[in-house]
Specification:
The protein has about 200 residues and is an alpha+beta fold. It has two domains: about 1-80, Glutaredoxin; about 90-200, Up-down Bundle (Glutathione S-transferase Yfyf (Class Pi), Chain A, domain 2). It contains eight helices and four strands; from the N terminus they run E-H-E-H-E-E-H-H-H-H-H-H. The radius of gyration is 17 Å and the shape is globular.
Length: about 200
């Protein structure tokens, strides 16, 4: 059994972990972390996840504790031997798109979220255009990658799981019109129709 630590409200990072668990058919239990009144994580959770961030998983079968969504995807793929090729070249293809999410799309969308909700309006107005432009550029890169293929690396993989949850927030947060990226839009619909995506949080 796997414990999946989440918040009461879903987020793209939480959705990555729950989608992965559903795709693999692994039994798991959600454990909601209640923040302290000052917004910090409770001490018991910091002993599990030193940065106090969700998602975090505890795998009772192996004793592994894994935080950071990209690390969770890798751990579960390697545990099950699924959604991550073992041959060197296709493995490298999936890894580079996973790292593209970890190093680019995820952080940029995180900055947009922060400045939209946590900073004064005048500061947000000065900073947000930069990040929204970056995200639009990332969407153009994904659009090119999806030319002639259903998934980012031909076969469905952890790269798709890592990037898909952000498409739900692109229009509201980043002012990205998915209709401007038809292949990316079709890819998102394709994933949304998978049974695991319908079951995931």
């Amino acid at each position: 059994m796997i414990d999946l630590y989440t918040l009461s409200s879903a987020s793209p990072n939480i959705r990555k972990a729950s989608l992965m668990l559903e795709e693999l058919g692994l039994p798991y239990v959600e454990k909601v972390v209640e923040k302290n009144s000052d917004g910090s994580s409770p001490e018991y959770f910091r002993l599990i996840s030193p940065n106090g961030t969700v998602p975090t998983i505890v795998d009772h079968e192996t004793g592994a504790v894994v935080f950071e969504s990209g690390a969770i995807l890798l751990y579960l793929a390697e545990k099950t031997g699924k959604l991550l090729p073992t041959e060197l070249k296709p493995h490298g293809e999936v890894m580079k798109w996973l790292m593209f999410e970890v190093g680019n799309m995820g952080p940029a969308m995180g900055e947009i979220y922060h400045y939209m909700l946590k900073e004064p309006e005048e500061l947000a107005e000065a900073v947000l255009p930069r990040y929204k432009t970056k995200v639009a550029g990332f969407c153009a890169i994904l659009e090119r990658q999806l030319d002639g293929r259903d998934y980012l690396c031909d076969d469905f993989s952890i790269a798709d799981i890592a990037l898909y949850p952000w498409t739900v927030a692109l229009e509201d947060m980043a002012d990205v019109n998915l209709a401007d990226y038809p292949r990316l839009s079709q890819w998102a619909v394709r994933i949304s129709q998978r049974a695991a995506a319908r079951a995931a949080r």
